[in-house]
Amino acid sequence: MLDSVQLPFNRCIQALKENIQFDSHFVAFYHWAKEHEVPIVVLSSGMAPVIQSLLEELLGGKPENLYVVANDIKPLRGIDKDCGSIRNRDWELTFRDNSHFGHDKSLAIRPYTESRSRDRPILFYAGDGVSDLSAASETDILFAKSGMGLVEHCEREGIPFAPFDTWASVLSAVQVIYEAGSTEA
C-alpha cells in the first residue's frame, strides 16, 4: 500500500497536516498529564517522525512528557532499481519488529506490566483498531474507541474495557483514578 505513495517525505507530512482530523480533547488530556507528571507514551504502527510532527502541530511545539514508540523511516536516494528512474519518494518504512503487526505493541508494554514492583504505576491504554489487538490484554485499564474493531475484539475475547468516544472521557476516568490515589497497579 505504501508503495503507491510517491511523494517526498516532507510533502507527505504537509499533506497529513492539512487533512488529518484530531480529537481536540487530546490536547486537554496532554496538558493535564504534563501538569501532573503523568507520562504519555504513544504506541503506534505508524511512523515515529510523522507522529512527532503531527503532535508538534497539534500541541503548538515539541511535546514534553510524551514519548513516541513506533515504526521509523529510512532515507532513500538515487535510482529506483525496479524501473531505472529517479525516485520521487525519498523514504521507506522500517518496521519496529518482525511481527505481522509491524509493531507488536504488546512487546513494548510487557516489560512494564510484568514488573512485580509494588510501586508500579497503573498502565492505561487507549486504542481503536487491529494494531491494538496484541496490547489489549496486556494493560491494566483499557479504553477502546466506540464503534471500532478493538471493541469487537474485546467483546469476542472477553477482555474488559471502557468504551470511549473522545479523549474527554479518557481524561475524566484517568483523573478520577489519579485523584483517588489509585495510581499503583
From TrEMBL:
InterPro entries: HAD-like_hydrolase_phosphatase, HAD-like_sf, HAD_sf. It comes from the Eukaryota. This is Phosphoserine phosphatase. It comes from Aspergillus mulundensis. The lineage of its organism: Eukaryota, Fungi, Dikarya, Ascomycota, Pezizomycotina.
